[in-house]
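To whoever is on call:

I kicked off a structure prediction for a single chain this morning and the downstream step that reads the tokens threw a length-mismatch warning. I double-checked the sequence; it's 421 residues and nothing unusual in it as far as I can see. Pasting both halves so you can look.
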Amino acid sequence: MSLTIIKGTILSAPTLGQLDALPGGYLVAEDGLIRGVYGSLPEQYAGAPVEDWGDALILQSFADLHLHAPQYPMLGMGMDLPLLDWLNAYAFPTEARFADTGYAREIYSRLARELIANGTTRVCMFSSLHTDATLILMEELEKAGVTGYVGKDRNAAPGLLEETTEESRRETLRWLDACQDFRLVKPMLTPRFTPSCTDELMAFLGKLAAERDLPVQSHLSENQAEMAWVRQLHPGCQQYWETYAKYGLWTSRTVMAHCVWSDARERQAMRDAGVTAVHCADSNQNICSGVAPVRAMLNEGVKVALGSDIAGGDHLHMFDVVAASIRASKARRVLDNWETDFLTVPEGWYLATSAGAAYFAEQPGFAPGNHLHALVLADDDLPQPHPMTPQERLERAVYLRQGGAIRAVWSEGRKVFSAEG
């Protein structure tokens, strides 16, 4: 039996809006699974080695449920363009470079290491349409300790990133056959968005999802120009979500990014099917898509998590994504005539940790039975305005962190990062 005992100020998010703190607590895991959080070490662990982090915060690590791995090299570029122009000018040409497997290895190795160093241990991630590069991405993520799902993208830009329907079918099956041995990173069917796929390809993906019990990720109601395009392509569908539902791609294992313009009917369809909406505040503001109605989704029972959405989003660090989500909710409050409550820090933190982990069938917080996904955060070099509670320390960390704040990271029960080397 492997045993992990971490001591420090333990802070977790067991429900939306609540933070539980235990200064000087012990987080115990056996064989990678959490046994409990204790104020004093149980007798059965007496004499066992303890990683004592003093007063440092012991936090849940992050789940980033929407990001585009091949856009990592272009972070911070093209932010003055609307979505469809940005895709054509920056995203698609950058993604086309991943036909080069050497380039893919260089970029994806760096991305995977940065995710772990930033405390992101679970992902739902888009690759490009290149099968070999997608397999390299999965390999590098697993090597670094990132867990979750990766999807081989479908068609994007005609003449630049394009497969015929038959080529996409063939390459999808080749990819699924080749990635069966990955233990922690699994395949996820990924029609980029409805306009990028033929009806035949969408039907094939829906059939494949049902036959092999595969999860699905895509985009939904991100941008009004995109939505108009979808209506033109599918005049028989009243709303964007129906273009996924009619092909069997709208289930409780479906993740839909953005949902900026999802109205009450579309949100009800998400709730009824158990679809997870992924809020990508940075991206939605950077490329002027809008401000998602996150509070309405939460009030109506829609499952919501957070995504960095690099490179529409310009921050890979999920602390910054939490901050951006809170700011966006305050803008939404203004747009809604001050009638909508904004997200609090505890709520934003829950969405970045427990809500994302729920997609992977985990319970909120550091619940017994969960896989150990945790990070150690130091803030001892920052000035103290007064004796701060653990909750205040986390609030400040969302907006401000000292250099090298993340000292250690555990993923799936294994220590995968240490700032001490």
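Update from on-call: the warning came from a stale cache, not from the record. Cleared it. Sanity check on the structure: The chain has a mean pLDDT of 96.
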